[in-house]
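Entry:
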Amino acid sequence: MKNISFRDDVLPLKNVLYRLALRITLSREEAEDIVQDTLLKVWNRRDDWHDIDSIEAFSLTVCRNLSLDRIKKASGQPVGTDEAAAEAEDDDPYERAAQRDRVEQVRRIVDSLPEKQRSCMQLRDFEGKSYKEIALALAMSEEQVKVNIFRARQAVKQKFDEIERYGL
């Protein structure tokens, strides 16, 4: 039996939880609230921790479910994030502006994906989780995870290529 420490095992997950909530809700404020709610729910289940195989997968599942609940309750459209665009290595201001635009285009495309694809892509490509960890966290088979990631990547590539070819 593994001893789980809130400070050592759960709190370090807050950034991963935030990024997942942000990817689902598309709102920084909602994501911050969801992370707090997730940590509180995980803490309140501390008597059951010995029955949990992976506290990380459990925490991600709670976070995802809370995020989806918030979306269902929201009456309006989610507000987009204002994540900083990546800076180009080159000192050319035109190249930096073009790079920021490309990063923003990709972010908008990812944000427009269906929730399952977005969540799978976030956990795999941005968080570096294994297919097994993602499947456990999102309550789906590893095959479903792979299919969702494949479709998400294909959609991002296709939409980005269309924008690059034809403009906005």
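The two ends are 55 Å apart (CA to CA).
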